[in-house]
UniProtKB/TrEMBL annotation:
UniProt-recorded name of the protein: Argininosuccinate lyase
One record GO biological process: L-arginine biosynthetic process via ornithine
Domain Argininosuccinate lyase C-terminal: 365-433
HAMAP family to which the protein is assigned, alphabetical: Arg_succ_lyase
Molecular function via GO: argininosuccinate lyase activity
Family: Belongs to the lyase 1 family. Argininosuccinate lyase subfamily.
The protein's annotated pathway: Amino-acid biosynthesis; L-arginine biosynthesis; L-arginine from L-ornithine and carbamoyl phosphate: step 3/3
Domain Fumarate lyase N-terminal, chain residue ranges per copy: 8-302
Length: 459
C-alpha cells in the first residue's frame, strides 16, 4: 500500500529492501520523549498564534501524553513501515485522537523536527557528561587530598624522571577533566538555539512564533537561518569531539592503572568490585574495567570520524545521509557515560600503595636533578657543568649497584672535590618533592592549594 503521510503522489508502496534501508525506527525511538516534547511545544504555539484552534491543540496535547505513556509503558507498537519516530508518533496520535492529529504538522517538516529532537537529546547528554566528569573529578580530589604527601616516581618516556606526589599525579587528571568540563559547557552554550519552525528548509508562510517554541524547549533563542538550521549537525560533532578528548584522557588514565596494578609496579590495588579473575590462573586479579575503558574509547573516536565523513560531502540543506548521525552519537554517548562511571568507581575504590610508591620514587636516580641544582646553588657551578658532574655521579652509583644517597662523601669528592656533606640533604625523595614549591609544582603544599581551589570551584 502507499504511504499514509505522502501517499497522494505515490501509486505503489516501497520495496522491502527500500523499507529496510530507509527505516530508522529501530534506533531513533530513543528520541521519543524529545519528539513528543517538541510536538507539544509546537502545538501550543500553533494555538497561541491562531493557526489551529485551542480545542485541537488540547486534543493534540492529551493525545501526545497518551502516546508517551504507551511508549514509556512498553505497549507502543513501533512500525518499520512508518520509518521513524516522528511518523510513528504522529500515526498513533491519529489513531488516538483522529482528525486534529493531521493539524500538528502545520508549519513544520520532519527536517526541523528531527534537528530539534536530536538537539534536545544531545543537550541532555552534554549535561550527563558534565555530571559524570564532575563526579570523577570529586573522586580524584579525594585521592589527591589523602595522598598529597605520598611520594611516587614521576615519569617521562615511562622512565623514572623526578619524584612527584600521588596527589600531584591525581590533580593532573583533575586539570584535564576540568578542561573537558569547560569544553562541554562551551559546546552546550553554542548549540542552544532552536531549529523548530525552520520547516523543510525555507521557513514558513504561517505566522508562527519561533521565540515561543524556543523558550518552551529551554533554548536561548531560535536559529537565525532556516537552511543552516535543518542542515547543521555541528552540535552533534561538537559533542563527539568533546567526548573524544574526554575519552582520550580516560584512556590514558586507564592505561596507567593497568600498568600500576601489575605485580611489577604494585602502585595501586584495584578493588574486587572493579576487577575480574581468571578461569584458569587462581592468583589472577585483572584490571578489566580499565582495559575496557581503554578499548571502548575507540568507538567514540570512530563515531566522531564517521559523522564527519557523513557530513563532509552534503550540499545544503537536508539529505537522508544525515539520518546516519544518530547511531554514532547514541553509541558514543552510551560508552562515554559507561567509561566515566567505571572510572569513577575504580578511582573511588582504589588503594594507592605507599610502600611500593615510595620505594619506586627513590630508585632510578630520581633525585639527580636535585643534586645538580644543589651544585648550582651551593657551589655556584654553571648548570651545564653541574649536569655533567651529576651524570658522572650517576654512572659511578650505577657501576657500584647503589643509589645516589648510598654513595660515600669520598666517592663523590673523587668526582668533584668541592662537594661537601650538605649534599645528602637534597638526595632524599621527600625533600625533593617538598622543595618544588613553584606555582603548580609537586610540593604537598602546592597540591593541597590546588585541591582547595578545585573544591571551591565545584562548591
Ligand atoms: N528520520 C529522518 C532523520 O533522522 C527524519 C527526517 C526525514 N526528513 C526527510 N526529508 N526525509 O533524518
Amino acid at each position: 500500500s502507499s504511504n499514509a503521510m505522502w501517499g497522494g503522489r505515490f501509486a505503489a508502496g516501497p520495496d522491502a529492501i527500500m523499507e529496510a534501508i530507509n527505516a530508522s525506527i529501530g534506533y531513533d525511538q530513543r528520541l521519543a520523549a524529545q519528539d513528543i516534547q517538541g510536538s507539544r511545544a509546537h502545538a501550543a504555539m500553533l494555538a497561541q498564534t491562531g493557526i489551529i484552534t485551542s480545542n485541537d491543540a488540547e486534543a493534540i496535547r492529551e493525545g501526545l501524553l497518551t502516546v508517551l505513556s504507551e511508549i514509556e509503558g512498553g505497549t507502543f507498537q513501533f512500525s518499520t513501515a512508518l520509518e521513524d519516530i516522528h511518523m510513528n508518533v504522529e500515526a498513533r496520535l491519529k489513531e488516538v485522537i483522529g482528525e486534529p492529529a493531521g493539524r500538528l504538522h502545520t508549519a513544520r517538516s520532519r527536517n526541523d523536527q528531527v534537528a530539534t529532537d536530536f538537539k534536545l537529546w544531545v543537550r541532555d547528554q552534554m549535561d550527563a557528561a558534565m555530571q559524570g566528569i564532575e563526579a570523577l573529578i570529586r573522586a580524584l580530589l579525594s585521592q589527591a587530598e589523602a595522598g598529597a604527601d605520598w611520594v611516587m616516581p614521576g615519569f617521562t618516556h615511562l622512565q623514572t624522571a623526578q619524584p612527584v606526589t600521588w596527589g600531584h599525579h591525581m590533580m593532573a587528571y583533575v586539570e584535564m577533566l576540568g578542561r573537558d568540563l569547560s569544553r562541554f559547557r562551551d559546546a552546550r552554550a553554542r548549540m542552544n538555539e532552536c531549529p523548530l519552525g525552520s520547516a523543510a528548509l525555507a521557513g514558513t508562510s504561517f505566522p508562527i512564533d519561533r521565540h515561543m517554541t524556543a523558550e518552551a524547549l529551554g533554548f536561548d533563542r531560535p536559529t537565525a537561518n532556516s537552511l543552516d538550521a535543518v542542515a547543521d549537525r555541528d552540535f552533534a560533532l561538537e559533542f563527539l569531539s568533546c567526548a573524544s578528548i574526554t575519552a582520550m584522557h580516560l584512556s590514558r588514565f586507564a592505561e596507567e592503572l593497568v600498568i600500576w596494578s601489575s605485580a611489577q609496579f604494585r602502585f595501586v590495588t584495584l578493588s574486587d568490585r572493579f576487577s575480574t579473575g581468571s578461569s584458569i590462573m587462581p592468583q589472577k586479579k585483572n584490571p578489566d574495567a580499565a582495559e575496557l575503558i581503554r578499548a571502548k574509547i575507540g568507538r567514540i573516536f570512530g563515531a566522531n570520524t564517521a559523522l564527519l565523513m557523513v557530513m563532509k560531502g552534503l550540499p545544503l540543506a537536508y539529505s537522508k545521509d544525515m539520518q546516519e548521525d544518530k547511531e554514532q552519537v547514541f553509541d558514543a554517548a552510551d560508552n562515554l557515560m559507561l567509561a566515566l562511571a567505571a572510572m569513577e568507581g575504580m578511582v573511588k575504590d582504589m588503594n594507592a600503595n605507599q610502600g611500593p610508591l615510595e620505594a619506586a620514587a627513590a630508585s632510578g636516580f630520581s633525585t639527580a636533578t636535585d643534586l645538580a641544582d644543589w651544585l648550582v646553588r651551593a657551589l655556584n657551578m654553571p648548570f651545564r657543568d653541574a649536569h655533567h658532574v651529576t651524570g658522572a655521579l650517576v654512572a659511578l652509583a650505577e657501576s657500584k649497584g647503589c643509589d645516589l644517597p648510598d654513595l660515600s662523601l669520598e666517592d663523590m669528592q673523587g668526582v668533584n672535590a668541592q662537594i661537601n656533606a650538605d649534599v645528602f640533604g637534597v638526595l632524599g625523595v621527600q625533600n625533593s618533592v617538598s622543595s618544588r614549591m613553584s606555582y603548580g609544582g609537586t610540593a604537598p603544599d602546592q597540591v593541597r592549594a590546588q585541591v582547595a581551589r578545585w573544591k571551591e570551584t565545584l562548591g
